[in-house]
Amino acid sequence: MNLVIAAPFAPMEATSREKLPEGSEWQYEPKWDGFRCLAFRDGEEVDLQSKSEQKLARYFPEVVEHLLSIDAKQFVIDGEIVVDRHGALSFDDLLQRIHPAESRIRKLAKETPAKLIVFDLLVDDRGHSLVEKTLEERRPLLDQFAAKYFDDKFIVLSPYTRDTKQAREWLRGGAGALDGVVAKRVDLPYQSGNRDGMVKVKNLRTADCVIGGFRYGAKEREVGSLLLGMYGEDGLLHHVGFCSGLKAAEKPELTARLEKLIAKPGFTGRAPGGPSRWSTERSVEWEPLRPELVVEVQYDHFSGGRFRHGTRLLRWRPDKSPEQCRLKDVKVSGTRPEMGS
């Protein structure tokens, strides 16, 4: 490519905080639940690059096609690839795309097409680099670019606000629809490769779960992780995720407590998965438990009937019965800002 900025190019990243920063120097944007993507267009060539600078184009051919359909022949934009299923963003459908078979990818591209939500413009349609301009200068140029070229269906403009109150409403109302809120300094240029001037605050929620099993640690005969379950409307206990990061000082006593409850089947519905390309025989072994113990955990996202990431143990809940831990009570969707120019 002959662009002034070409792949690989390190994207701007964010520092995690618990609260949104305040002040006139901050702009707020939704943190979409997808794959970060820098898109490079030069004539009839399109490159898609992930946050880790890996190539994404082969996994999202429909996004490439939509970018090629734009009248502008050169540009670089920063955004997020997402899959929208019935008004909610599905990270599980995105993960299905990272597949070695092209035929499988093409099939999924038709069944669950992805879209690119754009929040920054790094090279304009005249081939001029904008990375040295401040965000306050770049955003109006992106708005103009989007109004001229985006279809508002598959290539869409991400909203923003300078109003902290509005940003807090996004954070409160976006459970399941958003991954959180990002705050960016408007007075700084694009911070390629570092985290200066950008803060992310993620949605964190809690849920009560049954301990349906546990795994021993890799190097010791002590508990390494707890396997979490919730009851579905079918009355079965389904595996929904795991909780690790247990305190070392508490492991001996907890291990002894859990071993007294070992009994099959543990989970009567969906059980922990089997081996994969990333797992070993040891890592998929688990001990089933009688469903008697309940814990409250903190999580950042729930989709596809499970926690997407590991959860954090907050406290034990002897006051709650296992039957009260129900899948239908977990919030998986919410309001989200409207996209488009």
Write up what this structure looks like.
By secondary structure, this protein is of the alpha+beta class. It contains 6 helices and 18 strands. The protein has helices at residues 61-69, 91-97, 102-111, 135-149, 164-173, 251-259, and strands spanning 15-16, 26-31, 35-42, 45-49, 74-85, 88-89, 114-123, 155-157, 180-185, 198-202, 205-216, 223-231, 237-243, 287-288, 294-299, 302-303, 306-307, 312-316. Strands 3, 4, 5, 6, 7 and 8 form a 6-stranded mixed sheet that branches. Strands 11, 12, 13, 14, 15 and 18 form a 6-stranded antiparallel sheet that branches. The relative contact order is 0.16. Mean pLDDT is 89; it is low at 275-283.
Name a few traits of the molecule.
6-stranded mixed beta sheet; 30% strand; alpha+beta; 341 residues; OB fold (Dihydrolipoamide Acetyltransferase, E2P); D-amino Acid Aminotransferase, Chain A, domain 1
Which stretches are poorly predicted, pLDDT < 50 over at least 5 residues? 275-283
Spatial shape: elongated
> Please, what is the average pLDDT?
89
Biggest pleated-sheet summary: 6 strands, mixed
In DSSP terms, counting alpha (H) and pi (I) runs of 4 or more, how many helices? 6
Order of helices and strands: EEEEHEEHHEHEHEEEEEHEEEEE
Strand content: 25-35%
